[in-house]
Amino acid sequence: MFDFIRGPLLWVAFIVFFGGLVFQLLQFFTLTRKKERLFLSVHGKTKGRWSIESMRQWFESLLTTIIGTHPMMTILTLIFHCCLFVTPIFLLAHNILLDESWGISIWSFSESTTDILTVVLLVCGALFLLRRIFVRRVRAITTASDYLILFIIVAPFLSGYMAYHQWFHYKAILFAHILAGEVMLIVAPFTKLGHMLFFFLYRFLIGSEYSFGQGTRSW
Amino acid sequence: MAEHGEKPIDRERIKAFLERNKGKMKRLLSHCVHCSICAESCFLYMGHDKDPRYMPSYKAINSLGKLYKKKGKVDRDFLERIKTMVWRDCVLCRRCYCPIGVDIPSMIALGRTICRSQGVYPNFDESDQKESWL
Description:
The structure holds 2 protein chains of 2 kinds. Chain A is an all-alpha fold. Chain A is 70% helix and 0% strand. Chain A contains 11 helices and no strands. The model of chain A has no long low-confidence stretch (mean pLDDT 88). Chain B is mainly alpha-helical. Chain B has one domain (24-117). The radius of gyration of chain B is 15 Å and the shape is globular.
């Protein structure tokens, strides 16, 4: 069983993850073939892309986003998402496995650094959970799937932390860690976690008032 | 209730509306992470003591979201329940801000289209009107 989850199932997870993302991407471009030039902006555009005035306007427009209305939430989500991507990619143990399997070696953080990043991510996850339980407006739209998705995201990090510190039964925790990571990869393209891709597509490519880029695509 | 209130619901027409917009709407609904950050961008939410029922996401999830969940198999009572959400609690000013970029107004607009197609819309001349539309 252990050989299965660290062998074929891992391949399945990666294929579903990357294949799913490509599939979603292709469907998005098919559905948004229509193009239109929109001139919607809270603040008028000035000439000179890198002029001080245009940069001031760009900064002002940022204040109308989550950065201005929820600065604490912005910091929290930014830290959470950075840790989510950076920690597993630059984790020494993962890179040793990569080196042993394929001879590919990438730069890694020290073990203590990734340990701290994992704790930071878990704290952020706990704060999201508390927010979901105790903040009235979040609770009003929370469903069981929101808790499940949060658990799916946090589980590989929690089990990885426990495995690294050799809490409980090491092999069982490592088994759970690999499985949790694979589940996360498999479900990501087809659930709410798909916003990892669609955030960029929606905010940069779809033409709207809140578009970050010069989005011209339309549904 | 609108003047066509007694007419039976044309579920096939509702399903056709849902199917035609499925590619976009199902994606938008599935990518809403239920963070509630859109709340403050709605003046109706702010003007109603921050009542969560006025949050843009709440309105979209509980109107169009439920229509998709039920696959269009709804009765008139259901449409009457979502009527206030799509017609009164949202004015489609398009000011709602979603950090992920979910186009909430388009979801409410489709909810309105579906309700209107079944004759469910506010009628200001009704003498037995029980709820305020202002």
